[in-house]
Write a structure and sequence with these properties.
The chain is of the alpha/beta class and about 290 residues long. The protein contains twelve helices and nine strands. The protein binds ligand C2E and magnesium ion (3 copies). Keywords: Membrane, Transmembrane, Transmembrane helix.
């Protein structure tokens, strides 16, 4: 009976696998169509200064409004796009659109515009020959200054060196800023800081979650603040959800933060109306966000 059960479980597992594979392939094919069809769009989440809560930068986050499936989150379709290679076209679209939008905000709102736009770039894109050239082309076409673009990569993308690491050097040569995203969750986080030249560490939400807990729970976020300081890197605390976390992060030395406590990802229209309000007020008081501390 046990054998029987084992076998049926095995069969069911295989059927699930097939279903998932079909679903995967279908989603992949639909993605290929979605790029350039107007179904993809970007939301922008503010990165704010501590303790003032002023907007320092925005991060572009891709969304897919699927005609039947509705809003599909990137956690579901980015891995599919990475598998079937669509990420190269999708990522190029995200990069161009984010740079175009940022340059437009800078023209319209001047000093009140965020100073940087963060764009997530996956390992597959980074390894693609000519990626740095694509970035250079996009900057030239959109008129965005290289230093106003922050390319966000993961440790996993660059830990084994190779073309991805070369691409990071090429980006730096262009004057583009680079961040290690979800820092601390990948491979060889600390060793990487010696070989991969970056400007920003985005400290993963999983470490931020613990900052108001015990010393042990806060230990990694605390250490990463020290490491960033020692290496003269900027540290951004990701996924800040409460005022208490913001206060504690400030005490630990964090000067930049991102999270639902300050702002959720916003439509470009919402960013625009907040920027107009900021221009009208002048820049002394910034009520874009709730006071941080
Ligand atoms: P990420 O780059 O680490 O982006 C931050 C994610 O955390 C976003 O999720 C954001 O909405 C979410 N977040 C921000 N603050 C909070 C908070 O306080 N609490 C919680 N629970 N979540 C918060 P999103 O937009 O669903 O994106 C998920 C991931 O998908 C991103 O993580 C990034 O790795 C990837 N992604 C998004 N857009 C792109 C893209 O254009 N290209 C690539 N390659 N990947 C992308
Ligand atoms: Mg990111
Ligand atoms: Mg992140
Ligand atoms: Mg993250």
């Amino acid at each position: 009976a046990a054998k029987e059960q084992g076998r049926s479980r095995c069969v069911r597992y295989t059927a699930d696998m097939d279903l998932r594979a079909i679903e995967y392939a279908q989603l992949g094919a639909e993605l290929r169509r979605a790029v350039g069809s107007g179904e993809l769009f970007l939301m922008y989440q503010p990165v704010v200064t501590l303790p003032a809560g002023e907007v320092s930068a925005v991060e572009a986050l891709v969304r897919w409004r699927h005609p039947e499936r509705g809003l599909v989150p990137p956690a579901e379709f980015v891995p599919v796009a990475e598998r079937n290679g669509t990420i190269v076209q999708l990522g190029a679209w995200v990069l161009r659109e984010a740079c175009r939008q940022m340059a437009a905000w800078q023209r319209t709102y001047g000093d009140a515009a965020p100073s940087r736009v963060g764009v997530n770039v996956s390992a597959r894109q980074l390894r693609e020959p000519g990626f740095a050239q694509t970035v250079a082309d996009v900057l030239r076409e959109t008129g965005l200054r290289p230093e106003d673009l922050l390319v966000e990569i993961t440790e996993t993308a660059v830990f084994d060196g190779g073309p991805a690491l070369e691409a990071v050097h090429a980006l730096r040569d262009l004057g583009v800023s680079v961040a290690l995203d979800d820092f601390g969750t990948g491979h060889s986080s600390l060793g990487l800081l010696r070989t991969c030249p970056v400007d920003v560490l985005k400290v993963d939400k999983s470490f931020v979650d613990g900052v108001t807990g015990t010393i042990e729970q806060a230990a990694i976020a605390t250490s990463l603040a020290h490491i960033a300081q020692a290496l003269r890197l900027r540290a951004v605390a990701e996924g800040v959800e409460t005022a208490a976390q913001a206060r504690r992060l400030y005490q630990l030395g964090y000067r930049l933060a991102q999270g639902f406590h300050f702002a959720r990802p916003l439509s470009p229209e919402d960013v625009g109306s907040r920027l107009s309000a900021r221009v009208e007020r002048g820049q002394e008081s910034d009520s874009w966000d709730p006071p941080a501390l």
